[in-house]
């Protein structure tokens, strides 16, 4: 048969590789900076540079900019080779590349401005959400176009992972982004409270699964055999691994919400499926490591294999630890602590980072038809990264255990042994050591930048790489007696549809009952909607990213009810669009900040926002002096009330017209209170609204419970 | 349609069917998967797992 000549598009791969490196360094730099802010709070410079605004920038930059571009780099390189075809459309490739970079730039601008939905790893506001959807479709179109015009009959295992990633990320992004816009830069989540939490963590966990894991497993299945020059250990295992992984992963979200107000049956489902996940995850790890069977001697000399081995080992460690952390008894200790931060960084720095570096060192010399400038530098990078991960993770594991045991410790007299602040100040040395680990890792990445720069200089880009292969004969039908999986392998659309069905089962089984069954979220008569001023204050709380350090979810443990008051009930959150449960307690829980023993005066809050350490010595919370200077924008109050009404919050009909008057009156009351406390401030300032929100928290059910307790 | 779904899901005992059914689906799916994977042809497996290595770039794959 006549072979066809064609050219692989290497320019697009190069562009994505450069973007990966650039955003990787940026993401790590922001990460290092926010870690230092926890040691030196004075590094919270201006409102745009406070921890609450920069931390989402770090997570988004690392996940969607560094790993995202890494995925596209690897997919655009491997897909062309695995399909023996050039990408479907150069124009689509370009739109995808520049569109994705623009989205990242939009994130870099909007997140420090405080434009956020407050849903972790989905903080970007609705116009950017729409842009992400469009660009994702462009990517899918380009990918499927390439698969359809391929010259290779079989779809290699890496491509299944790419297809599952494409379809699942689309579903996750769309379902979690249902929001009601009230202006160009502000929207409210369609869901409230418990349901919002379930959807968010279904998304959040599967962002880890289908953005940080499945596409990278696809890359592992392509680049590891390439680097080791031998086929994957077991193709059979890869089939089992693939289908089990995508089926099970989608159920695991509720393990982020153990002991919360989420219905118990949903928590249990999350635990069971998270535990089961260990098998397909380790199936993948074993398949990766055993690909090196008989070639372990190469690992000693080949720095690329070293990076890959550490990456796959880190994947194995993180996916062992994940199911363990999903056990309720372990979650009781680990949740809200720095243990979780250590866990995710073993995944991000170890699995994603190291695999990306390995692929870059393999890819760049090939794209530029040259050899790597310095293996020695790459080796130094390897050791700096590996040590960096150790120095990062170990202090935080230590911190996590310590923090949790300090929170839970009682004196012999039955009182809590430590104030929350004591546990915070105790953490500082661990945070400092963690920053050292991060610095080592970043230094390693800088060595790579130099090494790759010199490598690129020594070669020239092979923008269009010549290749030849015979065209694919038309034989789409299933032959009698042919294996069913071989049939699916040749049919990308079937593969996509079946993947979609497989991932929808888990999501639907958890969400439909939570949304529809009344008994899951018992209503509490005394829980009332927020006043307009409290609602505005809550939006400031969201804008400043307070949820990143403060939870609003008291778990039913004695150590928590003693410290924070009555444990949280599902019915308390029915008007919370979006929910603000948080996932980390760098600061104390705030669910009952306005009630019981925790209640403080308006003056205390005012002084605390102005300079936290003036009220709590040793506090590492950023100061918010600008809240005292900035006027509250009340022009959108009516629109906000109407939006809440649309979402089902029972404000009386026509209340939107009265809202501003109520807001002004409540502001005046707080300003008068402050005046009595010798603080003179205009009632129009933002801090007034935030104080109103602080004082509201936990008050709904405080009264009936007090009478019950009596 | 919505009313129909609502009637059957407002009660918790009806909803426990979802997770049980799903677990069963996964179990059957997994067993069937194992069975077929075991039955796969070894030559095909070798052929497919060598795709990334480009051992024979010009091999006709259509027949």
Molecular structure report:
The complex is a heterodimer of chains A (710) and B (63). Chain A is mainly alpha-helical and 710 residues long. Chain A is built from 26 helices and four strands. Chain A has helices at 11-39, 51-83, 90-110, 126-148, 157-176, 193-228, 235-249, 264-276, 278-290, 296-301, 303-325, 328-334, 338-367, 375-408, 420-458, 484-489, 492-516, 532-543, 558-564, 602-610, 612-615, 626-629, 637-646, 655-676, 686-696, 702-709; strands at residues 4-9, 179-183, 186-189, 464-469. Chain B has helices at residues 2-9, 12-15, 17-39, 42-49. Chain B starts with a helix and ends in a 14-residue tail after the last helix. By secondary structure, chain B is mainly α. Chain B contains four helices and no strands. The interface between A and B is large, with 60 and 43 residues.
Unreliable residue stretches of chain B: 56-63
Overall shape of chain B: elongated
The assigned structural class of chain B equals mainly alpha
Number of helices of chain A: 26
Main β sheet profile of chain A? 2 strands, antiparallel
Backbone shape of chain A: globular
Residues in β-strands, percent of chain A: under 5%
**Beta-strand residue fraction of chain B:** under 5%
Number of strands of chain A: 4
Concise overview:
With 710 residues, chain A is mainly alpha-helical. Chain A has 26 helices and four strands.
Question: What labels would you give this structure?
Answer:
heterodimer, A: 710 residues, mainly alpha, two-stranded antiparallel sheet, 26 helices, 4 strands, globular, disordered C terminus, B: 63 residues, elongated
How do the helices and strands line up, and which of them pair or pack?
The complex is a heterodimer of chains A (710) and B (63).
Chain A: E1 4-9, H1 11-39, H2 51-83, H3 90-110, H4 126-148, H5 157-176, E2 179-183, E3 186-189, H6 193-228, H7 235-249, H8 264-276, H9 278-290, H10 296-301, H11 303-325, H12 328-334, H13 338-367, H14 375-408, H15 420-458, E4 464-469, H16 484-489, H17 492-516, H18 532-543, H19 558-564, H20 602-610, H21 612-615, H22 626-629, H23 637-646, H24 655-676, H25 686-696, H26 702-709
Antiparallel strand pairs in A: 1-4, 2-3
Chain B: H1 2-9, H2 12-15, H3 17-39, H4 42-49
């Amino acid at each position: 048969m006549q072979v066809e000549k064609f050219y692989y598009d290497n320019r697009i791969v190069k562009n994505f590789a450069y973007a990966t490196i650039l955003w990787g360094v940026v993401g790590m730099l922001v990460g290092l900076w926010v870690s230092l802010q926890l040691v030196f709070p004075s590094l919270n410079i201006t409102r745009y540079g406070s921890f609450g605004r920069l931390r989402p920038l770090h997570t988004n930059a690392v996940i969607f900019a560094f790993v995202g571009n890494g995925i596209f780099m690897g997919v655009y390189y491997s897909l062309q080779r695995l399909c023996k075809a050039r990408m479907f459309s150069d124009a689509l490739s370009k739109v995808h590349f520049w569109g994705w970079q623009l989205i990242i730039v939009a994130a870099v601008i909007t997140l420090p401005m405080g434009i956020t939905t407050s849903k972790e790893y989905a903080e970007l506001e609705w116009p950017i959400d729409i842009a992400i959807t469009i660009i994702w479709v462009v990517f899918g179109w380009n990918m499927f176009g390439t698969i359809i015009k391929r010259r290779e009959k079989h779809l290699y295992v890496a491509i299944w992972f790419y297809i599952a990633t494409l379809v699942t990320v689309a579903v996750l992004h769309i379902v979690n982004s249902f929001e009601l816009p009230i202006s160009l830069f502000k929207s409210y989540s369609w869901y409230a409270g418990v349901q919002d939490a379930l959807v968010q963590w279904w998304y959040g966990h599967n962002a880890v699964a289908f953005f940080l894991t499945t596409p990278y497993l696809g890359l592992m299945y392509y680049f590891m055999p390439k680097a080791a020059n031998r086929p994957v250990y077991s193709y059979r295992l890869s089939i089992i691994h693939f289908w089990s992984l995508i089926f099970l992963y989608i159920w695991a979200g509720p393990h982020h919400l153990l002991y919360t107000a989420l219905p118990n049956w949903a928590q249990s489902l999350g635990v069971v499926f998270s535990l089961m996940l260990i098998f397909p995850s380790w199936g993948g790890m074993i398949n990766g490591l055993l690909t090196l069977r008989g070639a372990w001697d190469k690992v000693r000399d080949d720095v690329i294999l070293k990076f890959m081995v550490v990456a796959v080992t880190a994947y194995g460690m993180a996916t062992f630890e994940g199911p363990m952390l999903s056990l309720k008894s372990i979650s009781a200790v680990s949740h809200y602590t720095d243990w979780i931060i250590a866990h995710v960084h073993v995944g991000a720095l170890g699995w994603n980072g190291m695999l990306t570096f390995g692929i870059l060192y393999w890819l760049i010399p090939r794209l530029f038809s040259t050899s790597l400038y310095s293996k020695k530098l790459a080796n130094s990078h390897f050791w700096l990264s590996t040590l960096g991960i150790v120095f990062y993770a170990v202090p935080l594991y230590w911190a996590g255990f310590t923090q949790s045991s300090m929170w839970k410790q009682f004196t012999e007299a039955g009182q809590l042994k430590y104030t929350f602040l004591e546990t915070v100040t105790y953490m500082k040395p661990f945070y400092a050591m963690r920053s050292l680990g991060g610095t080592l890792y970043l230094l390693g990445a800088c060595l790579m930048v130099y090494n790759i720069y010199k490598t690129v200089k020594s070669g020239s880009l092979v923008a269009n790489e010549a290749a030849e292969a015979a065209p694919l004969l038309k034989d789409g039908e299933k032959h009698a007696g042919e294996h069913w999986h071989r049939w699916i392998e040749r049919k990308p659309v079937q593969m996509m549809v079946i993947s979609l069905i497989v991932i929808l089962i888990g999501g639907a089984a958890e969400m439909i009952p939570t949304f529809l069954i009344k008994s899951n979220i018992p209503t509490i008569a005394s829980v009332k909607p927020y006043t307009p001023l409290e609602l505005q204050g809550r939006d400031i709380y969201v804008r400043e990213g307070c949820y990143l350090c403060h939870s609003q979810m008291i778990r039913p443990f004695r150590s928590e009810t003693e410290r924070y008051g009555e444990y949280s009930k599902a019915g308390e959150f029915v008007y919370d669009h979006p929910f603000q449960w948080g996932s980390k307690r760098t600061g104390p829980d705030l669910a009952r900040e306005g009630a019981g023993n925790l209640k403080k005066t308006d003056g205390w809050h005012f002084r605390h926002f102005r300079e936290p350490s003036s009220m709590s010595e040793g506090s590492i919370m950023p100061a918010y002096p600008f809240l005292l200077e900035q006027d509250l924008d009340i022009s959108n109050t009516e629109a906000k009330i109407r939006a809440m009404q649309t979402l089902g919050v029972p404000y009386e009909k026509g209340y939107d017209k009265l809202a501003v008057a109520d807001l002004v009156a409540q502001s005046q009351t707080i300003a008068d209170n402050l005046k009595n406390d010798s603080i003179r401030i205009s009632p129009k300032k933002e801090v007034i609204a935030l104080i109103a929100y602080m004082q509201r928290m936990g008050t709904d059910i405080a009264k009936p419970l007090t009478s019950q307790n009596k | 349609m919505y009313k129909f779904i609502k009637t059957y899901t407002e009660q918790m005992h009806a909803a426990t069917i979802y997770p049980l059914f799903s677990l069963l689906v996964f179990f059957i799916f997994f067993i069937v998967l194992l069975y077929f994977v075991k039955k796969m042809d070894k030559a095909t497996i070798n052929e497919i797992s060598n795709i990334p290595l480009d051992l024979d770039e010009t091999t006709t794959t259509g027949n």
